[in-house]
Design brief:
418 residues; alpha+beta; outer membrane lipoprotein receptor (LolB), chain A; seven-stranded antiparallel beta sheet; six-stranded antiparallel beta sheet; 7 helices; 24% helix
Length: 418
């Protein structure tokens, strides 16, 4: 027995010495940085890289934490469904006294867990939270962002040094926190997922502390109410018939004309003396005609011109039917006390990043939209969607647009048929 206790004591001493050695070898002091406008400017660049606006408008976020804690966060309602083991708790983040659980202690446990576990999911979006301070720190020759939480959460006083890539997107951070005694422990923010709501969220983290890994589970973010509104719009304009439509014909301001074989996705684009038989998805197969004669040597510039024209001019005809295109973010916004649908195109087309706020009539048919171009040339510019007709194929398409400066844009004789 004495030999066992002696061996156990020796083992404890060795563990203690290892811990002390590890601490002195790995502990880093909290760096000092420069606060002020430059730090906030760097933080704004990080915000823009993250598409923070989409995060603010996100309705629901779901994730797990290390396979044990499960969350469904109704963000706009400030409510969270928390499952801890066999217990389910409904947290009211705005007024915790209205939270529901089998015991008050369980509510507090759920709050503490949510504060910790949600931070590992959305920390990059919290750098301007109330009670935060920001400073620029030089890290490996580049600007990094030091964020200190002076209040709020479960552990005020914690600091995080965000490491950014060349596009100001966060790829890792170093931590100085009350729950980790060693300063400067790093964690990756690299396994990102682009969610339906348009925001990027991490799926796991790897820590420098003993190679620990944190799994965030099946991460989801979506806008349930915005999707419901989009579905009402699509029903109103007979989108199901649009999906089945084989051919669409129209013109654009009397300057260009189109015949679109929608089923095969081949378009005849005509303007001035040119006609291009355009294959939008296989552009190399396109052919060019000049004054009615096929050109043996296809001019790539003319084909690209036809592609740009088709992307622009078809949008003015069928944009309401594109609410669920790949890379589209849908949000509900308030316009004069009524719900409107904001649609942001993050990819595809000629100018990804543009956004449109659809204003609807009482039947959910779009009557106008406000245009927000990424290049800043339009910032809320309105345009009507009017002269809707029910086509031969059964879908609804507009025939005219009006602008606030008095301008008109006719879509000509619009046809859709099978």
């Amino acid at each position: 027995m004495k030999k066992f206790l002696k061996a156990l004591g020796l083992l404890m001493v060795l563990v203690f010495l290892f811990g002390v050695g590890y601490y002195f070898l790995n502990n880093e002091k909290l760096p000092e940085g420069n606060k002020g406008k430059e730090a906030d400017a760097l933080a704004i660049k990080m915000f823009n890289a993250l598409n923070h606006e989409a995060f603010e408008n996100t309705e629901v976020i779901e994730w797990d934490f290390r396979g044990t804690n499960h969350y469904k966060w109704y963000k706009q309602q400030n409510k969270v469904e928390v499952v801890l083991g066999e217990e389910k708790i409904i947290l009211n983040l705005k007024n915790t006294s209205k939270s529901k659980a089998s015991s008050p202690k369980l509510i507090q446990k759920a709050i503490d867990n949510f504060n910790n576990d949600s931070f590992w999911l959305v920390a990059p979006y919290k750098i301007f939270d109330k009670g935060t301070e920001r400073a620029i720190v030089k890290y490996e020759g580049k600007d990094a962002l030091l964020v200190t939480y002076t209040s709020g959460g479960s552990t005020p006083g914690d600091s995080y040094l965000w490491i950014l890539n060349d596009k100001f997107f966060p790829v890792a951070y170093k931590m100085w926190t009350s729950i980790i005694p060693i300063g400067g422990v790093s964690a990756t923010w690299s396994d990102w997922k682009t969610t339906e709501a348009g925001i990027k969220l991490p799926t796991k983290h790897k820590l420098s502390l003993f190679g620990l890994e944190l799994d965030m589970g099946d991460v989801k973010a979506y806008n349930k109410e915005a999707n419901k509104l989009a579905d009402k719009i699509l029903a109103a304009i007979k989108h199901e018939a649009y999906q089945k439509t084989k051919f669409i014909e129209w013109s654009f301001g009397g300057r260009r004309s189109f015949k679109w074989n929608k089923k095969e996705n081949i378009v005849d684009v005509s303007w001035e003396d040119f006609r291009v038989n355009l294959y939008p998805q296989e552009i190399d197969k396109s052919t060019v005609y000049f004054e009615g004669e096929k050109q043996e040597d296809t001019d790539e510039k003319i084909v690209k011109r036809a592609w740009d024209i088709f992307n622009n001019d078809s949008f003015w005809l069928v944009a309401p039917h594109k609410l669920y295109d790949k890379g589209v973010i849908r949000n509900i916004v308030d316009v004069e006390g009524k719900d409107a649908l904001k649609v942001t195109y993050t990819s595809g087309g000629t100018t990804p990043g543009d956004a449109y706020v659809w204003i609807l009539d009482s039947t959910y048919v779009p009557k106008s939209y406000k245009i927000y171009l990424k290049n800043g040339r339009m910032n809320g510019t309105p345009a009507t969607w009017e002269g809707w007709i029910t086509t031969e194929s059964g879908t609804l398409l507009p025939t005219n647009h009006s602008f606030s400066n008095g301008g008109q844009l006719s879509m000509g004789e619009v046809k859709a048929y099978n």
